[in-house]
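re: ur question from yesterday

yeah so i grabbed the chain u mentioned. its 83 aa long if i counted rite. heres the sequnce exactly as i have it in my notes:
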Amino acid sequence: MIAVHLLVVHCLPVQRLLGKNMIVTTTKGDMDDSLLEKREGSVDNDTETTGWVEYWLDGELVHRSVNMVLKRGVFAEGETQAI
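ran it thru and got these structure tokens back, copy pasting raw so excuse formatting
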């Protein structure tokens, strides 16, 4: 499997363990996650498993993190082409 990380979540999970909220890097700067609406989604098909987390503020998308795992490589399928 090949893992492709498109965006790394920037937060402080240790704070969550201490009973505090996480800090999320957004288009509006670093924000406490308690101020944001969190939405999650995923897609799972023959070629990939993709999951994402979005944070919204007043109807505006301010952060999206994506994790994609390819289930098969393009080299195994003979789908490569010369660059």
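noticed a couple things. Confidence is low (pLDDT under 50) at residues 1-12. also Helices lie at 13-17.
anyway ttyl
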